[in-house]
Each structure stands twice: as C-alpha cells, then as structure tokens.
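Narrative of activities, Objective 1.

The group set out to show that a structural description can be obtained from nothing but a protein's sequence at a throughput compatible with the screening campaign. Below is one input-output pair from the validation batch, recorded exactly as produced.
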Amino acid sequence: MIVLDTHAWIWLMEGDPRMEKEPILKKLYKHIPHRGIFVSEISGWEVGMLVAKKRIQISGTLNRWLQDAYNAPGIQPHRLTPEVIVESVNLPDTFHGDPADRMIVATARVLNADLVTKDKEIIKYGKKGNLKVISL
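Output recorded for this entry:
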C-alpha cells in the first residue's frame, strides 16, 4: 500500500513530471489495480486551503477537482478514523506540529504503507525508522 502526501497527490493528478520518475511510477502502477493508493481526507482540506490562498492552481473548480482526484483510478480516500486521530497525537519520537502532516503520517503508519513525499521533515522522520518513505 501507498499513501500520497498532499503535494504528491496534486502532482499526480495534474500530470507533474516530478511524479514520472520510473521507480515511483512502477510502485504506483503496481497498486492501481488493487486501489492500494491512499490519500488522507485531510489532503482535500489542504488542497482547498492552498487554492484559497492562491498558492497553487488546479484544473477546474475545487469541488470538481476533489471529486475527480478522489475517484481517480487506484486512488482510495482514507477517512480520519479514530485510530488515525489517536496515532497522530501519539507519534513516536519527535515530529513537528503541523496537523495535516501528522494526520498523513499517522494514516501511513496505521495502514503500514509507504508514504510518497518530498517533505524534508517527513523524510527525516522516516530515516529514524518511524515510517516507510518513498522520497520524491
């Protein structure tokens, strides 16, 4: 299983070349038939905030983009379950306080999935053995 960090999800949906690295594509394509690519529901909120603050542009309206992106082949939205919420407040070791990052990391940990990210803090956290990370 794979969990996409918010920027990785945006890049994948928008056809950004940063998601076209061969090892990443191979892993993604392997999981598409099984709907094994997860996106935390908090990522939808993050996309909305980035659009509202004009930090990113997406194809079409936010509502349409989210509907399409959550229903793309292989993608499965992952709810903010009680298990994810509890994990997010009890992450081992030290991890920064960004609530969205904590929820995304917790989602990957609960699912025992690899997290696809370029976030340096998350990558560093993974190198401590707290998380399986695929670096972009």
